[in-house]
From TrEMBL, chain A:
PROSITE patterns xref list: 4FE4S_FER_1 (PS00198), 4FE4S_FER_2 (PS51379)
Pfam families per record: NIR_SIR, NIR_SIR_ferr
One GO term of the biological process aspect: sulfur compound metabolic process
This protein's name: Dissimilatory sulfite reductase beta subunit
NCBIfam families according to UniProt: dsrB
Matches recorded under InterPro entries: 4Fe4S_Fe-S-bd, 4Fe4S_Fe_S_CS, DsrB, NiRdtase/SiRdtase_haem-b_fer, Nit/Sulf_reduc_fer-like_dom_sf, NO2/SO3_Rdtase_4Fe4S_dom, NO2/SO3_Rdtase_4Fe4S_sf
UniProtKB/TrEMBL annotation, chain B:
GO molecular-function terms, A-Z: 4 iron, 4 sulfur cluster binding; dissimilatory sulfite reductase (NADH) activity; heme binding; metal ion binding
InterPro entries tied to this protein: DsrA, NiRdtase/SiRdtase_haem-b_fer, Nit/Sulf_reduc_fer-like_dom_sf, NO2/SO3_Rdtase_4Fe4S_dom, NO2/SO3_Rdtase_4Fe4S_sf
Originating organism: Thiocapsa rosea
Protein name: Dissimilatory sulfite reductase alpha subunit
Top-level lineage group: Bacteria
Amino acid sequence: MADMREPIESGCPDPWQYMHPMMRKNFGQWKYHDHPRPGVLLHVAYSGDKIWTVKAGTQRILDVFTLRKLCDIGDEFAEGYVHFTLRSNIEYMVTDEAKVQPLIDALEGAGFIVGGTQNSVAMISHTQGWLHCDIPGTDASGVVKSMMDELIDEFRNANMPNRVHITTSCCQINCGGQGDIAINVQHTKPPKINHDLVANVCERPSVVARCPVAAIRPAMVNGKPSLEVDERKCICCGACYPPCPPMQINDAEHSKLAIWVGGNHSNARGKPTFQKLVAAGIPNNPPRWPEATAIVKRILKAYKEGARDWERVNEWIERIGWPRFFEEVELPFTKYHIDTWRGARASFNSSSYIRF
Amino acid sequence: MAIEKHSTPMLDQLETGPWPSFISGIKRLRDEHPEPRINEMTNDLLGQLEHSYETRKGYWKGGTVSVFGYGGGIIPRFSEVGKAFPKSKEFHTLRVQPPAGNHYSTDMLRQLADSWEKWGSGLVTFHGQTGNIMFIGTDTQNTQHFFDEINEYGWDLGGAGPCVRTAMSCVGAARCEMSCTNELKAHRALVNNFVDDVHRPALPYKFKFKVSGCANDCQNAIERSDFAVLGTWRDDMKVDQAEVKNYIADKGRQYYIDNVITRCPTQALSLTDDNTLVVNNRDCVRCMHCLNVMPKALHPGDDKGVTILIGGKRTLKIGDLMGTVVVPFKKLETEEDYESMVELAETIIDFWAENGLEHERCGEMIERIGLANFLDGIGIEPDPNMLSHPRQSSYVRLDGWDEAAEAWFERQAEAGK
């Protein structure tokens, strides 16, 4: 390390230099938008300037060949500028309507999928999974690839009652976030402890502090300092595993998928909502996870048929009620659906509001 | 020299179907890239991933890797099965801060791609869930080389560990008629004030900023950030009655009664017999629904600003928390406005750094100490907009009531109310 250099602590770059010139020109001066077709948005400025946005889904984890292909398309059609969305879609902005269709053709021709606007099932936002995470119960990238293969028509055609955001998380810590439908790994057994390694690898007090239910305590096991888990208290969240890998939480058999619905981050029509558990015990079944996809498709079908225009999944369920939701999606209702966490009482029905 | 390719029968199945396959991309790096280092690294990556698919377990372990001068920003990954897959046994990710609003020129993307294939695996994600560009897969030595190279032409690491994290902002004023603030400026003002706290993790836990230009909250700021900035306005919504009539002519009166009038959460709308939309702006909570349905007819007012919510987060460790309104309305126009917002962020982070427990997010601290104590600690007076409703529990000492009531009336008088 002969020539170590001090970093330039420049922080977040100024986007002005990378912004499409038409967006720079009309910054803060947009009047309205339209949706000419799925995958395409038209924004009109007060000046009369127009800009068309073409949105495309990708494999998210891009190799440099794919990244350069996306750049080639941007150079040919979109004046060398692109924008990425929160859900890892790429957007191209064009100022000439005549370029819209050729751009779509070029994207589709190169294997990307145009869509994801307005009332579509948007690209599934996901976590790193087996490719890179240190605590993944499954491979989020693979689940998403398999699921998007099946939901591609819903991405391409914006014909849901409102937009649908799907997320995946490869453990209960839930980095994937809240979704209209969320597919998350749910560990179902307490960690298996390798007591020979704990003292050497783990900072025991910080592991104890991590446990959300105070189920972990220091202990001497076989004459060595280790940790023990009160298995009656343990909720199998796996939070102890990152600071203490000898507390193995992942299990080929007992790490299952669970499905949650009704997370909605928008304030439109109602305050933001968190997702609720609807299905669990779904096998973690690579490489295609067909059981999880089948349930997601049942939920989407019921929502599409039952919801009114503009209703998000949570609003549709609120209107028809949870009993009918479970009936329509043919999922069992169990004691595990009853919240046991702090504030659970707020989810109990203390009225005579019953649906028959 | 030809490499011995790992057999990947399970991953191969992820190359079927119409959606683009990340496996095909990794295979292209293995099979077609001119650099043997990349061929070998991605081959072993595929080998380990197939092994995960077979055994349904992950095999990456964390560790400590950072670049000279920084303490964080790298996600270190060491393989537990490195003996079988030696070329990818170190496979670290660099978190790099994107430009605010995620705007890129293709020239810049190509420059980043060139650097990354020189020093890394050739795999990159735009963007991870915290908003970083994720340059996935390099060894410890090349981590430094790659950072040095991109740092020279304008890129900096994001946060990892207990620190201020990379921020996110929506496309906002660059292309959205609903934008109520300069999202890009707010984003950069906030996060760039804390570059030291981004690069040298020393806080109780992570702290995230997110900026959305309106209540649609496309960045998911309320649910996913400790400090959420949402654009809003406080004068009257703008209504173009001619455009309202055009919408009704298109889809009919019934549609707009069912989808706009009755969907208003505060019943602030009515449609007159001659198809004029009447808005009771005192009741409007700026939820954005009616503007979303009729973007040509309805627009935010002119007196724009932001609402700031503190304490949103994901599950660990007391369950998901929404942010709580701490500043109901703040103008963001002058440099002083931005400075005072940054000062508020400093005050909050300082207070949390002193009072938060290890591994405790700001929202969890607020839950533990109480919102009133938090407000007291950061010097903000209580406001009814901070709550859904006032207290329900009668178990409370009220002997400071008279003073608090007096203070309220004084503040109201100062505000000219």
